[in-house]
Write the structure tokens for this entry.
Amino acid sequence: MKKIAVFTSGGDSPGMNACVRAVVRTGIYHNLDVYSIMYGYDGMIKGNIKKMQSHSVSNILQRGGTILKSARSTEFRTKEGRQKAFEELKKHGIDGLVAVGGDGTFTGAKIFYEEFGIPTVGCPGTIDNDIFGTDYTIGFDTAVNTALEAIDKIRDTAAAHDRIFFIEVMGRDSGYIAIECGIGGGAELVMVPETTTTIHDVVKSLKGLRKSKTSSIVVVAEGDEEGGAADIMEKVKSEFKGEDKEFKVTTLGHIQRGGSPTAKDRILGSRSGMAAVEGLINGKSNCMAGIINDQVVYTPFEECITKSKPLKEEYLRLQELLSI
Ligand code: F6P
């Protein structure tokens, strides 16, 4: 292996830059030529590829977003698109790839590897923490802390006005952000896609709270089966008719995707980036370099994308128990 390329794809996440920096510098350390591909798979198709030096990744470790930009490519979903991408990589002599992203990124990487055989190792970059094969994903810790800071602030105003707040956090198919924010932020209730909580359950819980609780926080993962926080709030509110209760909604949205990465995300990104390059050098491919129990583990893409990572039962119980 002589020339490798790195790209970021799907939703950006804080710590991706730390990962890119580690890939570039680990590659150079091992005497590889390292290239960057801008805009993920789209950039691969368009040949948006350039050689990186050690200084190309200076001063990015502490920055959110991704200097390589990101995109969700529809063309790469087609065989023609992937063929074009392969031709571009061939033109540059790329013989190894590091893909930083989530399950969509790894689904593309797996198909591409099976079709064209360029060795590829992934790094888990998504705020959702929904990837099998790693305890945490790059960006999750920062996103939780960002959301938590917002929840603390909302709690102040909720308490001042005796209001019930429904706060929506990200997590399309996963309640990881919601449950950790719920525990850390002392939420009265957390609604996640992994468990069923009906409107009736929400109403019952809120009505059953001890009298000394005059305000409440309900954290809702955006992918909850009852809908988004705004829908849920309206349905719950209609069950409180005639009662002197005020309801409010806050959707935290993309604020959770930005910001300077926490130490955890910088270190996870750096470890995963180094492991991906050293994995490629040692013959690993079609797999992701994750961290399980503080050890680097290479998990086949197939498992990363097909196996689910269930929420910890203990976390669900802890949140419920502490909200009485
Ligand atoms: O996958 C990460 C994520 O932030 C999800 O939590 C969210 O549903 C989605 O990306 C939003 O994607 P976009 O930025 O493309 O709207």
About this structure: The chain has eleven helices and eleven strands.
